[in-house]
Amino acid sequence: MEAREIMSEDPVCCLPSDSIRSVATQMMENSVGLLPVVDNHDAKRLVGVVSDRDIVCRVLAKDGMDCNTATAQDVMTSGKLWTVSPQSSIDDVIDQMEDGQVRRIPVVDESNRVVGIISTADIALEIDEPDEIAEVFEEISEPTNIPHA
Predict the structure, then answer these.
(1) What is the pLDDT of residue 23?
(2) With CB atoms counted within 10 Å of each terminal CB, which end of the chain scores lower, N or C?
(3) pTM of the model as a whole
(4) What is the DSSP letter of 78?
């Protein structure tokens, strides 16, 4: 099975210049906890990701950050981003999620264009064995030295 078979296609994305209020509203309206940040809405090249946790830890809980003026660029995770391709196997998706300690992973094509997103819930729906699901979640949740919000 490939990533394309379980991903949510054409996810809602935001721009680096979008306000955090707009990002949070989009998350709420679409019942998602992560938005890919793209260079523009046409090309949709991935430049970062903003999670609900990023907003809480990097804006609300941090002194000096004004939630009325903060933008996606101010709080997004960028640089080394964990992604998979539509052709990635489910095992590769799980490995990337475990390596990055991420619960949601963007699916990008060969041009780095966002074409989908996969969450741990999508993975859990494809795994038949409860013990295997528990192992995947344990690996993804294990503390590392990877810097997070």
Answers:
(1) 96
(2) N
(3) 0.85
(4) -
